[in-house]
Design brief:
The protein has 16 helices and 14 strands. The chain is an alpha/beta fold and about 400 residues long. It has a 7-stranded mixed beta sheet, with helices on both faces. The longest helix is centred in the C-terminal third of the chain and has 19 residues. The protein is globular and about 55 Å long. It starts with 6 loop residues before the first helix and ends in a 10-residue tail after the last helix. The chain binds pyridoxal-5'-phosphate. Pyridoxal-5'-phosphate binds next to helix 6.
Length: about 400
């Protein structure tokens, strides 16, 4: 029990041995970011953890759009749309993404985290039931905490477990929420089964397409396109921070539902609107994605190549990857930090994913490919992963998805 709220902060110290060995990823300093390379602490590395799926963050057309918007429209909207009004650019983006996804309307947010929170705080109240995949992103759970709705979780990507939870909650207004492509596991939500169960129990279905937009389906429209089930999802959400090479978020759905969220989602009411530069970068990225579906095809080809290189080299993966995210199963957190340090020494950057992003003892190194990676870059990275797994005695087996 602490008597002073600052006491824990004052006692807090990062473990000396981690700090001394320079093992804490938070302190890495990135500069000179390009599509597949960046400098960390002044040294050039190959990015295998950039989440810039289509390589657009380095695209001069996207950079120019952001710069022109900052010069022309200012650096901040300074307030919420409720109080400070909207811009034609916000509406233009909403119209474009709604039509790309075959929806009546869409709404833009200042981040993906806020989009989840906006959707959930608007739709859910204390009587409503939110049924979540146990691996669903923290932003979804945090939205539920603000909405103070009832929450149940089902076993990851397990339709039978979803059905059990819905059967227990019969009679409540229910929203089922899943991710399309899971960010730490790299596997896909089984949309056909989930949709059928939601329909059977009268539940609405929301899908977070943070890692699906620009990644899944021939045109990059996401999970519905991947499974050829247009219109199967009741409300879709996503972020700008992956394929759209920016910072922001969005939801898309029927005109009535989007309107409801527009006037009841707390981040729309109580937080400043997205900056013009961030919006312009995402808008330009979406235009490029729509005009150049070949980018998506390249990403998917690179994803398949990376998967077979890793599996061929015996690198133990958490799941058989369904897209560009492949997580190497490490387990112990300190080994994971050492692994990531050794990767950097070999000139490769990937994401160190520790608790609370994953359960304790299930640390992973997450790798991400983009459409911009060259075959030689993937081959080199796979060799480094195989060598480090051998040297650090990292082994395990692939769990088929
Ligand atoms: C699955 C998922 N949902 C939501 C978010 C939150 O998006 P943002 O970073 O735009 O807040 C993320 C992380 O970026 C994510 O991985």
């Amino acid at each position: 029990v602490t008597s002073d709220l600052f006491e824990r902060a004052e006692r807090f110290a990062l473990p000396d041995e981690l700090r001394a060995a320079d093992l804490i990823p938070f302190y890495l300093e990135f500069t000179d970011l390009e599509a597949t390379r960046a400098k960390i602490g002044g040294r050039s590395v190959l990015m295998m953890g950039g989440l810039d799926y289509l390589g657009l963050s380095a695209d001069p057309r996207v950079r120019q759009a952001a710069a022109s918007a900052a010069l022309g429209a200012g650096t901040s909207r300074t307030g919420s749309r409720l109080h400070c009004g909207s811009t034609p650019e916000q509406r233009a983006f909403e119209t474009l993404i709604a039509s790309f996804l075959g929806r009546e309307d869409a709404l833009v947010f200042a981040s993906g985290y806020m989009a989840q929170s906006g959707l959930i705080t608007a739709l859910m109240d204390t009587d409503a039931l939110l049924v979540l995949d146990e691996r669903a992103h923290a932003s979804i759970l945090d939205g539920a905490l603000v909405a103070r709705c009832r929450v149940r979780r089902f076993a990851h990507n397990d339709p039978a477990s979803l059905e059990q939870q819905l059967a227990r909650g019969a009679g409540s207004a229910t929203l089922v929420m899943v991710e399309s492509l899971y960010s730490n596991e790299g596997d896909l939500a089984p949309l056909p089964e989930i949709r059928a169960i939601c329909t059977r129990y009268g539940a609405r279905l929301a899908v977070d397409e943070a890692h699906g937009l620009g990644v899944l389906g021939a045109a990059g429209r996401g999970l519905e396109e991947h499974f050829a089930m247009p219109g199967a999802i009741d409300v879709i959400s996503g972020t700008f921070s992956k394929s759209l090479a920016s910072v922001g978020g969005w939801i898309a759905g029927s005109r009535k539902v989007v309107d409801w969220i527009r006037f009841h989602g707390r981040p729309i009411l109580f937080s400043a609107a997205i900056s013009p530069a961030s919006l312009a970068a995402a808008h330009r990225s979406l235009e490029i994605l729509i005009a150049e579906p070949d980018l998506v095809a390249r990403l998917q080809a690179n994803s398949r190549r990376w998967r077979s290189l890793l599996i061929g080299a015996g690198v133990p993966l958490v799941k058989d990857p369904a897209g560009p995210l492949a997580s190497v199963r490490i387990g112990d957190e300190k080994t994971c930090l050492i692994f990531s340090r050794r990767l950097l020494e070999a000139g490769v950057y990937a994401n160190t994913v520790l608790h609370p992003s994953v359960p304790r003892g299930e640390a992973v190194i997450r790798t991400v490919v983009s459409s911009a990676h060259q075959e030689s870059e993937l081959t080199y990275a796979a060799e480094v992963f195989a060598r480090l797994c051998h040297d650090l005695k990292v082994n395990g087996s692939v769990e088929p998805s």
